[in-house]
Each structure stands twice: as C-alpha cells, then as structure tokens.
Amino acid sequence: MNVYLIILNIAVLLLLIGVLAYMQKKHISFSKRVFTALGLGIVFGFALQGVYGADSAIVQHSTQWFDIVGTGYVKLLQMIVMPLVFISIVMAFTKLSISNNLGKIATLIIGLLLGTTAIAASIGIMTSLGFQLEAMEIPSGEAEQARGQELEQKYEQIQNLSFPQKIIELLPANPFLDFTGQRSTSTIAVVIFAAFVGIAYLGVARKQPEQAEMFKKIVDSLYAIVMRIVTLVLRLTPYGILAIMSRVTATSDIDAIAKLGKFVVASYIALFVMFAIHLLILALAGLNPITYVKKVLPVLSFAFTSRSSAATLPLNVKAQTTALGVPEGIANFAGSFGLSIGQNGCAGIYPAMLAVMIAPTVNIDPTSLAFILTLILVVTISSFGVAGVGGGATFAAILVLSTMNLPVALAGLLISVEPLIDMGRTALNVSGSMTAGVVTSRITKELNLNIYNGETQKLEA
C-alpha cells in the first residue's frame, strides 16, 4: 500500500473542499454549492475507483479519512436531532395559532403520512409484479447468506412481541434514554414526551398564566439557540455531501449492482412514480409543484447522500419554513412525525416490493387480491416507529415479512445494492414529510403563499 497515494487522494479532497469554500466566499447560492459538491463527489469517487479499484487498500484507507468530513458532518446533524425534535414540538404548543388547531393539524399530518405510505405500498406491489421480480432469480453468495442470518437474528428479537406490545414500545418509559436514541422507536417516543410537556403547558397557561409565560420565554430562548446550532452545522452541508458522495461512488460494487440492475431500475421507477404523486397532491392543493421541486432539491440531495431522514431533519424544517412558507409549528410536527411514521420509501415501497418478490418462494400467489390488500394494510400499520436513520427500511421489512409469514432471511439477497437503493428511499421519505407539512398548512390556510411562490430563501444564515 502506497502511503503517498493516500496522501495525494486526501490532498485532492482538500482541494475540492477549497473550491467549495471559495464559492461560499463569493456568496454563490447554497443550492448551487450543494449540487456542485454532489457532482464533484461523483466524479472524484468514480475516478478513484477507476484508478485503484473499489476494493483496493488505497481506496479503503483514503475513504476512511474522507469519513472525518462526511460521517463527521452526519454525526453533527444527528447530534442536534433529538434536541430539535423535542424543543420544536414543545414550541408548537406554545404557539397560539398552532394550539388552536392542534388536533386538526396532527390528524392531517399523520393522515397524509399514512395515506401516502399506503399509496407507496401499492406502487411497490405493481412495480414488482410489472417487472416480474422474484427472489429465486437473485444469486446468493456468502455476503447474502450472512446478511440473511443477521436479519433472522433481528427478527428473533422482536418476534415475541404482539402488535399491542409493539405499540407500547413507542411510549417513552424513560425519556432520558430515548434522548440518547438507543431504541429504534426513540424519535417517536421523544415526540410523545414533548407532546405531554406541551399539553401540560396548555393546562398551566389556563390556571397559572404567569408561570406559563415564563416557560414560553424559556422555550423560545432554547429554540433560538438550537436553531442557531442548526445554522452553524448546515453551513458544512456542501463539504459533507462532497465527502459522502466521494466515498459512496469510490467503494460501490459496480458488478453487483449490474447483476441486480433489474431490481435497482424497478426500485427507482417506483420511487420516481411516488415522488410524482407527491407533486400531484401539491397540484391538487392548488400549489405549483415545479416551485416545490426547485426549493427542496438541496434538501433531497442531502437526504440522498446521507441516507438518514433524521440527519436531514434540520434542513427539512428550515426549508419548510424559509422556502415553502410553512409555519414553524406545522413544519416541526411534519418533520418530526415523518422520521418515524409513514416513510414512503423505507416503510412503504421497499417492504411491499420485497413481500411480492418473496411470496412465490412459499407458494403464495402475490397477484391475489386478498394478499395485495392485506399487504397494503400491514405495510401502512407497520410504518409506525420506523427509525429515521440508515437501516430503518430493514426494520420495516422485518415487521412486514414476519407479519405476512414470509421468510425474513431472503431480504438479505439485496445487500449489495442496499446502499444505492436506500439513497433514493431516504430522499422520498423526506419529500413525503415535507409534502405533508405544506399540504397541511394549505388546508388550514396557514401557508404563506408569498414565501412559497417567491424567490428561494437561503437555508443557511
């Protein structure tokens, strides 16, 4: 292994970071810098793979250094997710305009998230049937078998829980534990805890208005501090995307992707169709979908590269409020709920496609109406509590496959293309939560149309 080549690769990355820093110094727009970083990362990553090979020691060691920037950035975003979720939900209760319509807003957001997940499941089913995808056609090597065994072990950890017990798992028995994100349901548990704090505030506001006003000022101050931290971290977005994309493209197994090309193509067609439905929903709400696309592309680009809905939350909320005209309370609800409820890509399309592919291996007809309707229902219900981090789709797939009495281990056959597909799924998840926030604001007549239809506001300050 040539240490000098590794140093050279690191120097090239630093040079590209310097280019992005120069663009920032020249006040080039955030969106242009994000897409420049995305393009540079793809070109640099494929160049590394072409020169050294994806499995070479030089690439592996070089990308470990890249992770200081890429993974480090994601960790900084994850650092602020739980504080942001908590303080954002509590602040939603302290906003009078939100508290007056709280029940309606929460119902609309959850209803939109679950409704679009049911549609996503239907699209996943139709895509699998249309492309005639079958698990038996996928080659199984050592990596696939190992992944299958890992999934079975995860399944054994949750198989003894009944559906009521799984619902109970969403509740925050220890909020401080959930603030650490140690459980797969930690995010939704923090949302529930924050809702209790908010409801308590409303009660105090009626009986002890002076105490409530003091609490409101504290919440406002904490929110301002948290959002300032968000702004500081978001400034690093182009650099994080550059490093992440460089690593992803440099280490991708092109041969494995080619072998499973049919599944990859089918997956992305399903994802694009569902994204088109998001745009259709916006159009039906009387909003220009093209405007939406232009304003959310930087957010979706980061979601695509990071593969983490949770890490994208700060960008998600910021874009809803500053670029799309969604009130802070609704944006925070939609973004936070979207982390664990109704993820269109990870909890909708992916488990549905897998179930249709695997069903024939146990002599189940995936085209039967009873199977399809049951699968859509199971996918929708199972979308509660899916973790908003990379790997959340695995948890959703285990729940769906086990409920449908299908072999969980066969989901491991897709391990080689899992990261590539997960990028698209995550972007769709984020779009779903943002669509829910915009449409909810439109229905409740709280959407600022001047901001939505105006020039794109900066996502950083």
From TrEMBL:
Pfam families: SDF (PF00375). It is a multi-pass membrane protein. GO terms for molecular function: L-cystine transmembrane transporter activity; symporter activity. Gene3D superfamilies: Sodium:dicarboxylate symporter. Keywords: Amino-acid transport, Membrane, Transmembrane, Transmembrane helix, Transport. It comes from the Bacteria. GO terms for cellular component: plasma membrane. It is found in: Membrane. Signal peptide: none annotated. Belongs to the dicarboxylate/amino acid:cation symporter (DAACS) (TC 2.A.23) family. This is L-cystine uptake protein TcyP. It comes from Parageobacillus galactosidasius.
